[in-house]
Amino acid sequence: MSKGNRGRDRAAAKRIVEQQKAAERRRRVTIWTTVGVVAVLLIAGLVGWGVLANQNKKTEASQVNTPSVAVDEGTAFAVGTGPVTVDIYEDFMCPICHEFEKQTGSTITQMVTDKKITVRYHPVSILDRASNGTQYSTRAAGAAAAAAVGGKFLEYHQVLFDNQPEENSDGLDNAKLIELGTSVGLGDTFAQAVNNKTYDSWATKVTETFSSRGYDGTPTIVVNGKKVEGPNNTLPTTEVFTQAVTSAAG
Amino acid sequence: MDLTQQPSRLSTAWPWISTLARLGLAAVFLIAGGLKVTDLAASARAVNAYELMSYDTAKVVGAVQPFLEIALGLLLLIGIATRLIAAIAAVLLLIFIGGIIWAWSQGLQIDCGCFSKGGALTGGRTAEYGLDILRDVGFLALAGILLWKPRSKFSVDGLLMGDR
Fold this sequence. Notes:
A: Glutaredoxin, elongated, B: mainly alpha, two-stranded antiparallel ribbon, 6 helices, redox-active center (chain A)
């Protein structure tokens, strides 16, 4: 063996040792980054869980001002005394809800007058994202609850839809909500409830109940416990709605 | 001669391709999570709209998911344990695609809630499940690249492994 050869062997051995060291280092890095990453993901999940638990606390019964006049587990305002129950879940920001109101509102009023139906209005707030962070849906639903306490739910319901803001605008501010209240004869108690957000957490609670009942869009119209809709989940026409009421009245 | 040159050129390109895939996927998860995290109740309703689980379960999933997405996005951004994260991302994307296919097959008219709080669609708007799936498959491809070639530039992995 020549000297040169021995030197090359030594170099090769050194290289192998270095490669093993590098491999060892890779293995350690992989293990520790895996542990670290899994921990980070677990913590992220726990944060989500924690935030949820915190939010759930806010809709606990003790934290919510349920309007005394509310029916159906305190989630709705009833109009009329007829035998057929019509539940309407609506968001004051939702244009289709307004459309249904314009389209079928007079028929509903007639049915109420004829003592055919009892309408239960559930003001939900699923479109808070459509008011640039001002949470119009929740504020409007809370204001509607205050109006119900003042005995003017239906009137206020009507002016809210008549003055419905555009989706993705700021919505109506509280001053405007109060002004509309004044226009239908609501007073200081109402104004205070709007400014103090007295019923806002209640609106959140109503929305929770709405979701837990398996509904996810507005308006949702339910006649004697059965959801009424047009083909392909569209808004029912007045005819479809009337038929549903007639067959429910049996 | 050519045979040795070709692969070496490709092998220098891969870390750059992987870097793009990594940052792209990071953006996807950060945006998707960020849009949902501001309204967890809406996120829960979006999950609930798939009608796959009870509302109470949907609430937990809806709350945990955005935080997970943001965490995945940040981890991808710094490039740590890239292969593992890519695998988790791929599994998540497969679940999302499965969910959309489910909604489609059930004839549900919902917004997939992929980049929004989702929920049911009302009047006039129709679901575009085909597009949603196509987009998710694209994201899946990014995750695939990272699974296959996790080494990328400007990554914590590279730093720790002693790459240049």
